[in-house]
Design goal:
The protein is mainly β and about 210 residues long. It folds into two domains: about 120 residues, no CATH class; about 90 residues, no CATH class. A six-stranded mixed β-sheet has the order 1-6-16-17-5-2, with no helix packed on it. Strand 11 and strand 12 form a beta hairpin. The protein is globular, with a radius of gyration of 20 Å. The mean pLDDT is about 90.
Length: about 210
């Protein structure tokens, strides 16, 4: 039986809420004899790393992780993960609106656009691709008017597709919740009940992937 490389199932939410982690950048720095530095980023996009062990609070939680780990075959299959601090198109704690993120400007012929989230403002902003939006959370507007029909969003890829291409110059915006595509970063899950009851939390590393 073939095993899918990615599962659309989400890591148990109650465990995700207690995890630690966040984005990682890789920057090469060469310090010159003049005292100046040359800095270069290895990758265009950051990669998020998490430790789900800090979200485990009970034996029931351990059992849930064990079941989820086995179902994913360890590192083999990726899955959805809800970042407890960064899972929406707007500021943390704010409700999603169709005007949160400017996605693109219409040209009269293009009808499909990739969802993204901007960090910062202006030319220096970083735009992060959003490939795993949460179905049912997505709101879309064209030129400041919310759309209720005439479009569809693929929750597996983050692609926004209109039935008719937006007019040239039309500003396309969207709001959404999203998950992070991750995988387990270990193939052996080590669980020691005695150590857990003594307060030792197991390490369960997760790493962001490009599905």
């Amino acid at each position: 039986m073939a095993i899918a490389s990615f599962s659309e199932e989400r890591f148990p939410l109650r465990l995700a809420l207690g995890t630690s982690g966040g984005p990682e950048r890789r920057t090469d720095i060469v310090r010159l004899s003049t005292g100046y530095e040359n800095r270069n980023q290895r990758h265009r996009h950051s990669s998020r790393h998490y430790d789900a062990g800090s979200g485990v609070k009970s034996l029931a939680d351990l059992a849930a992780v064990l079941e989820f780990f086995e179902a994913r075959r360890g590192k083999l299959t990726g899955f959805r993960f809800r970042d407890p601090f960064d899972h929406g198109s707007t500021r943390f704690g704010k409700a999603v609106t169709p005007f949160d993120q400017t996605i693109a400007t219409g040209d009269g012929s293009t009808s499909a656009f990739a969802l993204s989230k901007a960090y910062g403002h202006g030319e220096g902003a970083y735009r992060r691709p959003i490939e795993k939006p949460v179905a049912g959370s997505i709101r879309v507007a064209v030129d400041g008017i919310e759309q209720t029909q005439g479009f569809a969003v693929d929750a597996k890829t983050g692609l926004l597709a209109f039935d008719t291409a937006p007019a040239a110059g039309a500003v396309i915006s969207a709001g959404f919740e999203f998950d992070v595509p991750v995988r387990f970063d270990l193939d052996q899950l080590v669980i020691n009940l005695a150590a857990f009851e003594a307060g030792e939390i197991p390490s369960i590393p997760l790493v962001e992937i490009r599905p």
